[in-house]
Amino acid sequence: MRPTDTSNPDYFHKVVDCQYACPAHTDVPGYIRLIAQGRFTDAYMLNRKANVFPGILGRVCDRPCEPACRRGRIEDNPVAICRLKRVAADNRDDISALLPKPGPGNGKKVALLGAGCASLAVANDLAPLGYELTIFEKLDVAGGLMRSNIPSFRLPVEVLDEEIQMILDMGAELKTGHPIESMKDLLEQDFDAVFVGTGAPRGKELNLPGRQEAAANVFIGIDWLESVAFEHTESIGKRVLIIGVGNTAMDCCRTSLRLGADEVKVMARKPRAFFKASDWELEDAEEENIDIIVNHSPKEFVVKNGKLTGMVFELMEYDVDNNGKITDQHVTGETTISCDDVILAIGQDNAFPWVENDIGIEFDKWEVPVVDEMTFQSTREGVFFGGDAAFGPKNIIWAVEHSHQAAISIHKYCQGEDINQRLPDGQTLDSAKMGIHEWSYSNTYDGSERTLVPHVSLTERFKQLDIEVELGFSPELAAEEVERCLNCDIQTVFTANLCIECDACVDVCPVDCLTITENGDEADLRTRLTAPAENLAQDLYVSAELPQTKRVMVKDEDVCVHCGLCAERCPTAAWDMQKFTLHHPHTRDEADTPPARDVA
Amino acid sequence: MSFMSKPTVRHPKLPVNDIGLTVRDYEGGMSTLCAGCGHDSVTGALVQAAFELSIPTHRFAKLSGIGCSSKTPAYFLRDSHGFNSTHGRMPSVATGANSANRDLYYIGVSGDGDSLSIGMGQFVHAIRRNINMLYLIENNGVYGLTKGQFSAAADKGSKAKKGETNLQPPIDPCQTAITLGATFVARGFSGDKDQLVPLLKAGMKHRGFGLIDIISPCVTFNDHEGSTKSYAYTREHFNLAIAANFVPPVEEITAKYEEGTSMPVKLHDGSTIVLRKIDQDFDPMDRISALRNLQENAEAGEVTTGLLYIDESQPEMHEVDNTTKTPLVDLDYSQVCPGNDTLQKIQSRYR
How many H helices and E strands in chain B? Predict the structure, then answer.
């Protein structure tokens, strides 16, 4: 293998699994260390820089970081990253002085459609630069799905209001109760750019026999949640069936319990391995004694005397291959399950009935707009999409990153710059060495199990719809959990020409990730390492030729615990522990960097 | 030295040996030697060798004297027996322990000062008696604990860190041991585990006294230019004479060996050492040839390594002395202490 090119920020970035997995590249180990030092405000601000809504995301993020966490490869459970984020939000001081101020007006006007996380995040990036921003929202209140679809027992209204207000205070004008009926009309107004952040607002329908007759007792999940959030719906039948097993289904079933249902069943077509809901949302639902019933495919609504009495399901069986993929399915029978109400939570679609088809904005065959994956510009110049509106339903953290990128494009577009010429990611590496045996991070491995977050008791939590179930970590519990973080951003950096091949690092490494051996191609090298290197998703760090024997140092990044013992036992400082900082440019960075001149 | 201990966390897919232990189970405490010390590498090789042999850790006894090398038994085989004796007296303690319990694997760890100066008298008699043990000399040519004075193993003409030249000739422990009738003599290098681990395994399985002289650079006082025991010098002057590969009894020897260049040597427990001649002049089964070649190579300034001499035919101490085959700990009390009547009978023989 060729020596690893560590000057490309991607290499070390990938070692920080959590940060790499986070769409917005939040500096997770960085803020966890700040929490460990009790610097909650600084931790919050570091978070906010990347993900804009730390208080909201600390509760309801889809947390792609956690399945990626290296700790999960060493033991079973990753660091409770999301819960720690909330600790920073819960314990921070007043941060109003630290927030960006509205910039002096630059004369450019931008329309932001929909007051959800996507548009708000764009506003967060553009307002400080002096853009005149108008957010159009069809409802009477801002927040989008964060308000209408996420139940208040998971996300308290106050948390939502506060983080939205921070952005509005930067100078974005919010026009509520103001649906956009025609894109054409909007484009004729005096806006320099338009951002569409209207989400994927249409819940999927289930057209089965009896659907029309049962209409009074069959609800579309996201519409129903919205009507609960705005207190238009305050009760539901005793026996409720939820169709679908995604995260919306989990919100629907738990909300049903709080509106008076006492027998709620979540009906899944496939086995558990194929559920769309996140594990922790399933766990939270099951903690509330929700039945999740697998292998039941809905067949028809049973209506007697004009009223829904139950549903017929086909009993399914699946053939699964060695890779866990379904190869075939069989119907083995039928069953009828009685119920009073049915909630459909089987997915969402984009819906743009208000975008005319003769204005240069193209849609693909699934009615998803054609959007550039880097610039988020649609097929019409100056019109940008982000969040669920861009590529279909994802989650809040993806919407935030879309918005960071779209904001860069909007800025460049308004300034007459090429939106395709963007700053690349950068990195800095600073040695973490403080003394002979002293490192600027907590490098001892803490073998503690994942700390469980306390919940409100099952007897208390159903008394009111908006009792937040998770209590969050206390600073004391957080202090235990932070020590589980492996500080993957403190990188092991190797300088080949200093190595005397004494083997000290190889011998001392607790997880046997180092080897000095003859070079070879990757597949061959992976078979010759100290410990099995079977995780192909994790890179090998290969040095240049070592001076004395011309062999190479190979590190398998997979389960390195970043304890720094290799560096501590290295007599020549060929290994060093260095703090990696990713520079992932936002609009402010683009604005501060003059555009590169073309060199002919 | 490092103050933090090595974390107990391990690679989730770390291989296990025949008795279900991982290599981590053969480790000891955290080394307090200088970072980069050759001795730590020897420790690593010992851990690896014991792991590969699948010997339960409590079947080992580690013995040492005084010096940097003699600290290392604390860093491997934490669950084995051990005795850290006075300077140069490890061979006596090993002799006593071995007399009492012949069933353990004895690993004596010594240094060039401990064995070739203060303990020279003990060292040579342990060889003469052919005590069944593996005796390691972690040889760095200097007294590391007392700031790097030349030891008795320092080569004539080699330079100390501050520039003084050594004027006295060295004692070569390998030549000495062969002269005295040692039955397994090898030399290795801490910076070459591929060679050292098989030597250690063979040495542990050899019946009788096994000596491995291991060039183990002192990274603090003897790793500079002008040193003849530095990492760089050893690698430049490394001359592998006889490669040795240890083959446990259960494995078949599958490779083909050319007559005259490769030879399998059967050990008493049924395992085999396959010797492969790199230096054609060297005959590791012939004491005179081995000695002559060692001397010639030393004159040429080469560090001759490999399994230099082996003789599986010589009886070890217990066989010579015709002692009981059972370790004393396993004998009945009445056998160990047969009582006053027996004592009277024995004494009457001398009246």
Answer: 12, 12
Comparing CA positions, the residue from A105, A102, A84 lying closest to residue A38 is A84
Q: How many CA atoms lie within 13 A of A161 on its CB side?
A: 5
CATH superfamily for B23-321 is Thiamin diphosphate (ThDP)-binding fold, Pyr/PP domains (3.40.50.970)
Is the same domain home to A182 and A251? no
pLDDT at A494: 97
Pick the closest to residue A374 from A445, A442, A434, A424 (CA basis): A424
**Parallel, antiparallel or unpaired: strands A575-583 and A490-494:** antiparallel
Tell me if A467 sits within 8 A of A153, measured CB to CB: yes
pLDDT tens readout for residues B196-215 = 999 999 999 999 999 999 99
| Residue indicated by tokens 């700031």 | B147
Q: Is the pLDDT of residue A169 over 90?
A: yes
Write the DSSP symbol of residue A216: G
φ, ψ dihedrals at A149, nearest 5°: -110, -20
- Does B36 contact A500 at a Cβ distance shorter than 8 Å? yes
Partner residue opposite A570 with nearest CB, options B7, B36, B235: B36
User: How far apart are the CA of A570 and the nearest CA of chain B, in angstroms?
Assistant: 6
Residues 6+ apart with CB under 8 A from B340: none
Looking up residue A295, the CATH number of its domain turns out to be: 3.50.50.60
Residue spans of the domains in chain B: they are 23-321
Interchain contact B219–A (C-beta under 8 A): yes
**Same-domain check for residues A148 and A263:** no
Note the helical H segments in A169-265.
183-188, 221-229, 247-258
Is B9 close to A571, i.e. CB distance below 8 A? no
Rounded to whole angstroms, the Cα distance separating A95 from A92 reads: 8
Chain B residues with CB-CB distance to A74 below 8 A: 9, 12
Q: Point out the domain boundary residue: A347, A362, A388.
A: A347
Rounded distance between C-alpha atoms, residue A18 and residue A78, angstroms: 10
Residue A543 domain flag: no
The alpha carbon of residue A141 is apart from the nearest alpha carbon of chain B, in Å, by 51
Residues A210 and A307 reside in one and the same domain: yes
DSSP state for residue B57 in the 8-state scheme: G
Q: Is A504 on the interface with B (CB under 8 A)?
A: yes
What was the ipTM of the complex prediction?
A: 0.91
Tell me the shortest Cα–Cα distance from B121 to chain A, in angstroms: 32
The verdict on A214 and A179 lying in the same domain is no
Per residue in A216-243, pLDDT tens?
999 999 999 999 999 999 999 999 999 9
